[in-house]
Amino acid sequence: MKLLLNINRADDTAIRPGDDIQGTLIISGIASQKQPQCTATIGGRLMISVPPQVAGPKIDNAVYTLFEETKQLNYENRSGKNNPDDDVLFMPFNFRFPSHINCSKHPHPCQFPPSTNVHEGNSRIRVEYYITAAVDRHIFGGLSNKKRVAKALQLSSNCSSTTSPASSSIASLPITLRQKDYTERLQPRPDGLPAYTPSIHVQVVHPQPPVFVRGQANPIRFNVHSPSEAIGKIFVRSININFKTSTIAAAGSTAQRVDQDASGVKLPTLIPIDSEILELDTSTWGRLSMLSLRPTFESCLMQIKHTAEISVGISVGPQGSIFHTSSRFDMVVMDPPPSYEEI
Ligand SMILES: [Zn+2]
Fold first, then answer.
1. Which residue, 74, 78, 343, 327, is CA-closest to 224?
2. How far apart (Å, rounded) are the C-alpha atoms in residues 73 and 5?
3. How much distance in Å is there from the Cα of 300 to the middle of ligand 1?
4. Under 8 Å between Cβ of 341 and 152
5. What is the pLDDT of residues 58-117, one digit of tens each?
6. Ligand 1 centre and the CA of 109: distance in Å?
7. β-pair type (37-49, 61-72)
8. Domains in the chain, ordered, with CATH?
9. pLDDT tens column, 196-240
């Protein structure tokens, strides 16, 4: 007996909540006259793997069923097919992917988390959706022969985040320009410096709200603020933009967070700082790689959040030692809107 599961989606086409999914289970090589019992199941699960050093000896993997629906399958009478002589059976079915999940944490319906597979060391968060079909064939005297076939579904959930992203300067670079011995220097990380110390810092000029579209080169604009006494003496030597994605999942008593880093822009450069505010825009370099981050998501089961960090390398003179100052901001990533709606 051979099973084949066909669904009306290409493997890489994402489905969305509320979509209709049609499929056919094809069974071939049935020798016996007796027709087998067949079922199809659609479902989804969230799996959280917690490393033993965090979980302790008792907990390891938590599996949380998001939903599951099973249907009995019937034979389709296709003309020319399902002949008595033919040993191939076609069993069509259809499911509607639920539009919301009934979660236990609050009375409102919740959004399904998108298909996810992230890990960091032994910590792993997976969200899987699937269609399976099972064939239960009686052989002799109460014995049965069960066979299964499964297909993964990719779910994309595009949900607008309600939190307002915030920008923060995480490091400013104090500058000391000494007149006496004609040496000028920059200092790395400030520690307990008085507020009046002249310093260089990076300020992000992000769109409002800072929404970035997946698969596109999204320009990032930022300003380098410098004290007036440093103008003409300091240079921007490098620009690095990195993205950090945090995936947080919680189900039952298990919660886990997985952080991932992705490089955006890595640009060695030599730009003289000739004004107190130097405006920079990544689109002018044409070097910003296509954004491939997963869409931002927020529900009580799972959160996907992104932060961008801009790090600017500065030196006194074009060849001096490079010190870094940086700024960080929360960003919202969305899928591009579909070019047309399917009818
Ligand atoms: Zn909920």
1. 327
2. 13
3. 5
4. no
5. 556 889 999 999 999 987 665 555 555 567 888 999 999 999 988 777 777 889 999 999
6. 6
7. antiparallel
8. 2-153 (2.60.40.640), 167-334 (2.60.40)
9. 567 888 888 876 667 888 888 788 888 999 988 888 889 999 999
